[in-house]
Predict the structure.
Amino acid sequence: AFKRPKRLQHRPIPSPPRWPIIGNLHQLGELQHQSLWNLSKKYGPVMLLKLGKVPTVILSSSETARQALKDNDLNCCSRPPLAGARELSYNNKDMSFSPYNDYWKELRKLCARELFSAKQIHSFQPIKDEEIKKVIASISESASLNHPVNLTKTFLALTVSVVCKAAFGVSFEGTVLSNDRFNKLVRDAFETLGSFSATDFIPHVGWIIDQFTGLQKMREKSVRDLDAFYEQLFDLHKEGDRQGREDFVDMLLRFEKEGTVVGTDNLTRNHIKAILMNILLGGIDTSAITMTWAMSELARNPRVMKKLQTEIRSQIKNKERISFDDTDQLKYLKMVIKETWRLHPPTPLLLPREVTSEFDIDGYTIPVKTRLHVNVWAIGRDPDTWKDPEMFFPERFMDNNIDAKGQNFELLSFGSGRRICPGIYMGTTSVEFGLASLLYHFDWELPEGMVVEDVDMEEAPGLTVSKKSELLLVPVKYLDQ
Ligand code: HEM
């Protein structure tokens, strides 16, 4: 048989030893980004794993991430077919898990215009004002009783209510997903999306394993519960029932009725459900997770908390509402949020990409059909990029222009390239507004008997990574108002 001359042979990509059938699956552990980080310290920033039958390359440095997401974006901007995602997205009819095709391109354009534009997001401000008012009133009550507030739940409830009203035009209370159920549903959905499912990796018999481990059952339950929620939303949007401006759901339902073609597809109910899933899962949890991690870091770093509150209080003074112009001036707040994303990127391995044309990274050839993960969590802790990487030190962003908008490969919390998160502005402004409001109105103390070392920073597994234990802090009303 023909053999390539030695000098033209591909260098094999460094790879940990593997077992038959499962390959390297056993090395992943529960917190995959951490296991992969440890492996990359030994095997380098371009590392090949065999996850069952699927060749998977993990990139763990800003330089290798740049080569993939910038220099070769077009060669790797598709998504692999995944069993869990397929069910939750009605056969990949959503934006996040759709392969790279005309439907995805048109859908992204449509959502950019109708949902993610600065104009749309500014139009949601009255909703945010109203919802934050309720949150502040409820925290004030806890403050007067000296009771701790569960900030994990508070942030989730805030983003749920804002997103539901803004994007879905309905009040979340009273829908089939009451708060606590919603919380569990979102975590389960992300866990099923984040677990490496045997169906994807082991041919023919993998699905039996997923039945056995209960993953399939959990997945079916997530799909069923979410479906009931979308159906209720559609009922609430029935013609004639509502007045006022057309919201995002009204618009999608109108497109369905008019037989609108998006790329190659006639928009159907299932397409709409899949798109709503993206907003529900993509838009709510990530922002809430960011705020919870930020407050946890602030609780552990009283110096940073004080400095940030001084900035916020001198900017806001006695204003009744916090505007976009206000948060835009809060330079230290922006640094605190970036530092939070460096250490706690909500989606630590981004969403997986699939290679559609062969290309090279660091001289290694990445073949077609390879699955690609960028370990953003590892990049945020890379000692070659960051001095004292484990330290929470927002001032590190003072002397550089690094931001998270996809141009700086050291900070990739939203990804980069064609698949970059379309909700950057929506997410960033929500996080800025939520944190500024709570830090303006209250000082935050640790519950009685706790010291800063007791704030637990352990992570919970999933496609998005949240803080494992809930964050409880005691609010003290800021009286200088
Ligand atoms: C702090 C907030 C957020 C973070 C950290 C975040 C993070 C991410 C990341 C890492 C990706 C994958 C990028 C890649 O594969 O390269 C992504 C994709 C996506 N995000 Fe976000 N996100 C946030 C907020 C939002 C919001 C508010 C929405 C919508 C309401 C949203 C909707 C989406 C969608 C639809 C995609 C899929 C894009 C595609 O594949 O074309 N995200 N996000």
